[in-house]
Amino acid sequence: MIYERGAFAEMIAAIWLPGILLFALRDRGGLLKNSSLLALHVAAIWLTNLPAAVIATYLLAFVVIIRAIQLRRAEPLIRAAIALALGLGLAAFFLIPAIYEQRWVQIAQAVTSGSSPHDNFLFARTADAEHDAVLLHTSIFAVIEFILAALVAGFARPLRQRAPQLYSILLASVILTIFLLLPISALVWQFAPKLMFVQFPWRWLMVLNVALALFAGAAFARVPRAKYALFLLVPCTIGLCYWQFHQKIYPEDRPVSLFEAINNGEGYEGTDEYTPLTADNSNAHPYTPRIAIQIASQTDEQRKVSPATLVHSDSQLWQPEHKRFAIDSQVPTRDTLRLLDFPAWSVHVDHQPYPRSADLTDGRMVLDLPTGHHEVTIDYARTSDETWGDLISAVSLIFLIALFVIARSTNPVNTLPNA
Predict the structure, then answer these.
(1) Of 222, 218, 208, 221, the residue nearest 170 (C-alpha)
(2) What is the reported pLDDT for 96?
């Protein structure tokens, strides 16, 4: 995560997993309080990183089913259902647009060859040698973690004796992770809703890491001077990862280079899964002008003069969500903009709504303007899915506050946790 991919959002998302397990499993605190705190963690992980959130949701369902079987009552399932409803509701201001607006883009490109689970099981081989080399490193690292988890689980006798149900759930989580990293889980990846969009099965190692840490803590908590081993273990781990996984940044990928590419007009290639349905990144070219003007029709007399004398454009504002420019033309023009045609763009010409189309080769927005002077205004508008998302989040927040108030007023008697 750190050295090979720089996927910092995934690392941050892992922060919420221990809390999700805590408030899904603990007995003390009561149903409403635990449900509310669990909902906050569910919302937090969905707002942090989507693949990690999908993993956390499946993990939550997995552990509460086991917990309900252990206790022979439905309270863990009810707690998780309340938390999921509230947590997803709190994050609705982001999730509703993310779900609805998938129909605008080529989201299936996220799981094409090289990025699908089937190409990223442990020790998988593809036609991409660079991909396979990275996956080999990750696979070896995963096997080392499996072995360590098995060892510390065996030595975690205090946890096994004092909280056998928790021990069983953690062990089951390790087994689930190992299963999902192997090709035998292919059907699960294919048919479980949205699990395919996790893309890389090894992302489930964040679940194994939680169990590994808890087992290790239980195993070494009573070992004299065990904490001093951390002063040796942590630097060695950091050094090993830097040695094996550190990847040099290509010059063109450095932030300064990207900033310069945007400012000098070269631009950058977008991500396929987030481009409009009509777009094709392979046909995009660097240094494309902001406004490419093509004369739609002209007379024989007009063909004798330079096109620059017939058409003039002036870009007054070109910000990510707001564009302002003017075109003076003695002939009708077909103007192709350096702007992908998303449905949320609102186009006005001379202060009136105006139709547009998309270039068939690369998906850029096209305006067909008649002769004369025209003031063009393009803004990325707020859509109805955003409004609905905000409303659902507001209602969910009210419900969450109400649950906290009710939970405090009932003041349930705390009991010793079984897990």
Answers:
(1) 208
(2) 97
User: 73 vs 33, 65, 66, 68, 182, CA distance in Å?
Assistant: 18, 10, 11, 5, 33
Neighbours of 78 (CB within 10 A): 14
Tokens of 78: 């009810």
Tokens of 262: 């945007």
Q: What is the pLDDT of residue 411?
A: 62
Q: Which is it for the CA torsion 190, 191, 197, 199, positive or negative?
A: negative
What is the rounded CA–CA span in Å between residue 176 and residue 233? Answer: 27
User: CA–CA separation, 393 vs 32, rounded Å?
Assistant: 19
* CB neighbours of residue 35 within 10 Å: 25
* 295, β-bridge pairs: 333
DSSP 61-85: HHHHHHHHHHHTSSHHHHHHHHHHH
- CA end-to-end distance (rounded Å), the chain: 31
Q: Which residues of 186-196 are buried (b: 16+ CB within 10 A; e: fewer)?
A: eeebeeeeebb
Place of tokens 């309270």: 75
Find the helix packing angle between 75-90 and 50-71, rounded to 10°. Answer: 160
Q: Token match 């087992």: residue?
A: 215
pTM of this structure? 0.89
| Beta carbons of 328 and 373 less than 8 angstroms apart | yes
Q: What is the pLDDT of residues 401-412, one digit of tens each?
A: 999 899 888 765
pLDDT tens per residue across span 175-226: 999 999 999 999 999 999 999 999 999 999 999 999 999 998 888 887 777 7
Q: Considering only CA atoms, which of 17, 104, 88, 15 is closest in space to residue 47?
A: 88
Residue with tokens 């590994």: 212
**Residues in a beta bridge with 336:** 292, 366
Q: Residue 122 is encoded by which pair of tokens? A: 């442990």
Q: Which two tokens stand for residue 373?
A: 């002077």
- Three-state secondary structure of 339-360: EECCCCEEEEECCEECCCEECC
Mean pLDDT of the chain: 90
Give the Cα-Cα-Cα angle 277, 280, 282 (nearest 5 degrees).
160
What is the rounded CA–CA span in Å between residue 37 and residue 31? 10
